[in-house]
Amino acid sequence: MKALSVKAAIQDLYKNQYSSELPLRKIGAHDKVGNIQTVCQEIPHDRIQDISSGEDSIRFAIWLFVGVFASRALTSTSAYFVDGPLHVAAIQNHTYVIQAPGYWLFNRTAGLFPDPEIGISIMNWLFSAGGSAAFYLAVRKLALENVARAAAIAYASIFFAWFSGDIHSTYASQLFFPVMVFLCLLHYRENFNLSWLIAASALFALGAGFRPSDGVFFGLAFLFTLRRAGWKHILVCISVIGVIGLAWFVPQRIALEHMADPIQKSARNHLSSIASGVMFSGFSSYAVANVLRYFLPLVLALFPLLPLVLKNRRDIFLWLWILPGTLFFLLVYVSDPMYLNFLLAPYLILAATNIIVSERRRVLLLLICAGLNTGFYLACRPLVFSNSHLQRVEYVLEADLGKYTYYYVRHHYQPRVRDLLHLPAFRR
Q: Among residues 184, 165, 166, which one has the least CA distance to residue 175?
């Protein structure tokens, strides 16, 4: 196997941002990343990991996959949340779209199962489990083994990501496709093997089909990785994305054209009808609520890691992954915390690769993050306050955080604004 440095792969993707910061030291066969410069100078790529280390990583990835899949399967329930029943109905009616932008590929895939409701559940369990395993395999290329494992456990434990795997919607696909594309791009940058770029392109196109935001928001970061690719590779990449994209886009457009509602069949009309960000509602209470729906879930989910994330500002690729979605959510629209699934991977990678903090502290903070999220998801219960001022707090916490936990899944409890504010029912 051709000798190749890990430094070359990571530097090309992150613009030499690690090489000047890592302390020089000798490492053993099991101490993979500690100093990328020393690894590059002394160990060829095919000997960075010995056989036992490789077997351990595969074993951990398998156990992580099984554990996440089982946790979602044990906490899931029948379709109830928001558009879950609509997805099931669209599959049963063979229309496969519920509203623009369509989600045709997601529903058509679930329609291959004898029972579409069970099919959606299995797909979301697989997305959650596969995304966690892929996240681990990607992070271990950039961080020490213990850090990568702790980061993967945290990724699998974030409360709204767990909720995404328990309900019947497209959110869980965001935990899988962007991370798989990232993993393939890391492999591609190691040796510019066209096969890895084809795999990344195919996964990018499929992810955009399952949930269009995967394509729109990840596009800038994807283009960034192609800046040094040859024209032949770029043309192949465009061709793969174009062919796969048309395979789902054309039938999706046909299906949307058959919808009667002019708002639901048009992406522009549908977005205009629901957008509440500052670009649509100005500096209003709607815009404030929209901003809260972005920050509150992320702060609750990641607050042990926020110092690590905010101090790691030189990872250009990761910030390009974060920026487009963040701007859209803050300025245009974010409905639920599950929209933020797309941003979890880069935020956690920023925390895991912050080399200013010791390995031990990073592992500890990542495990604390995982424990707090697991506890919140499994233990959270509805809040009831009689005080009118505290009822507003109850509304904010329950509407933006609490109802995305296991208790609400198990009881199919989907409180409305009127219920959370304790307003009397409307009567004609």
A: 165
